Amino acid sequence: MAARAQGGDAGYAPWMDSAPWPLAPADLEDARRRVEPRVHRTPLVRSRLLDEIVGRPVWLKAESLQRSGSFKARGAFNAVVAGLEVGDSRGVLAVSSGNHGQAVALAAGELGLSATVVMPENSSPVKATAVRAYGARVISEGVTGQNREQVAADIAARDGLRLIHPHDDPLVMAGQSTVAMELADQLAEVGARPQAILAPLGGGGLLAGICLGAASLLPGVQVLGVEPETADDGARSFYSGQLVTLDEVPQTAADGVRTLHLGRRCWEVIRAQAEGVLTVTERELAEAAYFLFTRVKLVVEPTGALAVAALLRARPELPAGAEVVCVLSGGNCLPQQLAELTALPRQRA
After folding, report:
1. Could you give the C-alpha distances from 242 to 101, 198, 237, 239, 264, in angstroms and in order?
2. Fewest CB within 10 A of the end CB: N or C in the chain?
3. Which domains are seen in the chain, by residue range?
């Protein structure tokens, strides 16, 4: 897919100035204080068969079992609560392919705010339905992957709403750092010391948050992003040293990573702190989702299976036998979508 490099302030929006940047350790601790009482402590899952297949111990951080069905609840609650703490009681607006929209709708509803979510017309039906079920207004007519952020910015300005960006908002990023902070506690409880954490990479909020959260609590642990080969703007950016933008919305079953480029502030963190970015094919993605469903008994959406997909291919980037954590970022998908995705491995078997 064609791509282009961006200049220094590409992706910048004035609303970002209202949040702390760069994030300090105190900002991450504030996020933990706000988030912990409102989200699940998601389990670490093991699979003996997966360990045998990939030749290494693997821990699965099941954010697919998180409130609203994904890790996005962490960033949404942090951003909404932080706003209320400084007296900002405006309604909130999210731009999302689905998971961030659900999370913002959930957080806003619980905290007494209205929520509006701008979603592309081709968004997952199960995610759009869930956003509405949480009480949010959904705007999708004429919305595409290319124009969704501009549509959202226009609506926020017109209606006086507070825009909570899905990844490039520092408060959202700080909320996502609690994945790593919680993970550090859990690993200490079981006496595990992985060499790497693998996490899906779309706009970069999750990966950047994990980098920040792991920096002090899991020193020496490598953090790597995983994205589809058809949506490899993160890999191109990381290995070229320049933020790259795709010319069109990538075609992949992993709808949560159909972004055109990394967030500007996410990119700052990823470039400085991540160890690398891996890519996987659509078949590898399907095999991972199929394995998680049939053998680990976890319903994981395509995006959420990216990290496991990377492990199922021999990865020279990871030392042989090294203990690894895979973040399963979400579980919001229809049975029909899972059946279509897993058709390839079933046919091959």
Report:
1. 29, 22, 5, 8, 11
2. C
3. 23-70+173-348 (3.40.50.1100), 72-164 (3.40.50.1100)
